[in-house]
Amino acid sequence: MDFLNAIVLMANFVIVPALTYGSQLALGAIGVTLIYGVLRFANFAYGDLMAFGTMISILITWKFQSMGISFGFLPTALLALPFAIIATILVSLFFDKVIFEYYRIKKSPGVTLIVVSLGLMFVLNGIVRVVIGTGDRQFFDGQKFLIKANEFKELTGLNEGLAIKSTQLITLITTIFVALLLFWFLDKTKTGKSMRAYSNNEDLALLSGIDPNRVVMITWIIASILATVAGTLYGLDKSFKPFTYFNNLLPIFAAAIVGGIGNPIGAFFGGFLVAFSEIMITYAYKKVLIYLLPENLEPTSLMQLLSTDYKFAVSFSILVIVLLFRPNGIFKGKVL
Amino acid sequence: MRENENVILSFAIMATLLIFVGVAQSWGVALSILNLCLISAVMSIGVNIQWGYAGLINFGVMGFTALGGLAAVLVSVNPIEEAWSVGGMGVLTSIGLIALLVFLIKIILKKITQSKKRNILIGVIIFLFIILIRKIISPSIEAIESVNPATQGFLGGLGLPIMFSWIIGGVFAALVAFVIGKIALGLRSDYLAIATLLISGIIVSIVKHEDWLSRGVKNVIGMKRPAPYEIDLQQTEWFINMVAFLNSGKLNLINDILKKEKILNQLVMDASTIFVKLCFAGLFSVVVIILLILAQKALYSPWGRMMRAIRDNEEAAKAMGKNVVKQHLNIFIIGSAIIGMAGAMLVTYNGLFTPVSYQPLRYTFLIWIMVIVGGTGNNYGSILGGFIVWFLWIEAAPISLFFINLLTSHLDNTHEFKRHLINSVPYFRYIIMGIGLLFIMRYRPKGLLPEKIKIQKI
Question: Which of A95, B191, B272, B374 could form a disulfide with B230 if both were Cys (CB 3.0 to 4.6 A apart)?
Fold first, then answer.
């Protein structure tokens, strides 16, 4: 019984949150990695693109709510998501046209593009703050819990409860669905193959008659979809605050690099790796060990490796360790 | 010669703008903008040394600034003896243990050949040491933090004059930069950017959460000052006499003695704040000028030429026998030390240390905009960038308010759209900065004052 209790405790505080957080990071990391693979620069504006997409879906959700449209037990935001995706795609295509295209034609080095993306970051950041403000925004509606801690306890007779929020399940399912769709697209369709070819060897791809503009456009479209979906899911699960999206950019970058930058599958697993390590290292294991160990060995301290304030340190350490031992990432990078 | 004219002209325009603010808003505002411009100029000189001279992307500016601020606290605040007596030993032992750990790892790296076993050994040693250190330090930390938590609750500092911290801040930043450089400088340029950004996040979270060291989010207030305090000035004879003398024309017109006294009092109060700010401006200008002279000397020395050679063609520089890795590390340390100094100056000027205020947008990316707008690789340019960008950063709100009022003048004041826009005036500065950066990158990628390269004729 104690063993089961320990497992449920771990599931409640480590596995379920890490799976959710990991899904959000994974989607973001795939977006970053795709942009890196095709456009060849680290896009620092990506976090704010996520914030922008989320803002649009919040605005549409509010509109729907005021019109009395709802999505049953699911959050209305899911209904708003497609519209938000379209808006974000249009915005990023617009920014690509007015900002990035010039440098692509000039073949500027990646460092220049990083600085340019900083400019875009400031612009998007400003727009989001002007439109929706800096405060905390809740836009979740519908059924909050799939199973509550109390219900679980009654159901199983265990001491520990397991609470699963509906947003957590939605996040996981959406992520797996989107990721599978994307991998199928990259692997099986002609367009996807042309993207991979372009990322692998630009000149060769051009010689084989691949239209670079089309590849770039599709990359931005996919990246915007991923940004909006990941951002909205994150906002639904926690809450929307423009500043947190910039902060999430760092673990997302870490995930993309750890998985091998330019490699979507790597980025996907990188996201989960970063999320699991962040949560596992900052979790206090005292209660779990009390269940597992015999009474005379029970710990008195929290048994926490690192306080939760140092989440950054975890993603950074993983990044450094991976870069020192496998400079190209866990899954070899630089190939889509 | 034409280049120099540009420099003089642009700084003259900047001075005019500041004087305009002085006349239109108030001299106090103009001087505080000037002071922060000077501090920003120091930071952008630091970033320019890294990015402009050597092409290293350092997105960790925020971290070094925070370290400088921490140095200001550790140098100037009086030591809290009670806290030292309850927890000093634990903290010192832990620091000793950390030093021992570093030493041990160094020995292992030297003595044992590279292998999987070595990596595992290092991992195990680090893990054991972390557990040991935490065992020793946690009771001490608890004891320290419970000493007078409302006003103290930390170890305090050395109680030295705060000006020392400008140097110590530089030293702190240099030490940390050495460690970071050792880890991260081997990485590709874009990885370096991300790694430094992450590290600066870690530094700030340490400053924010290690209460025994820096009081964390509880802030340290009422720090020492190199300049006199306003209240003291207002009671000093010579200062009152000076204000009376300067305003004698105005004061002589008033006959009523009581009224005269009252007006003089008001004048003294205004003058004292301006005087204090002038003192700061003088100190900061000295620092900026010294740094500028040194940076210019370095830039046009053989060392500076070598740095530019490494930046422009690393392979060729390597082939000429230059130690690229070592030079990168040097320049990373020098630039970071200057940023650390600026961080200490900033805390000195504000008189308080607020870890929460360290945000990457403000302390990392804004400084980067300064360097790029001003002119990469040109020291005058980065100072100018510091001035222009900070000036715009502060004046963006009034400017955008003006434009909002102009564009929405046909709307009623209670109109929701207009009210929303006016409420979000502070955030327009982000958009203005971003658009400014994008324009500069597109149409003047070398910045307002481009890099000057002297070609010596042989």
Answer: B272
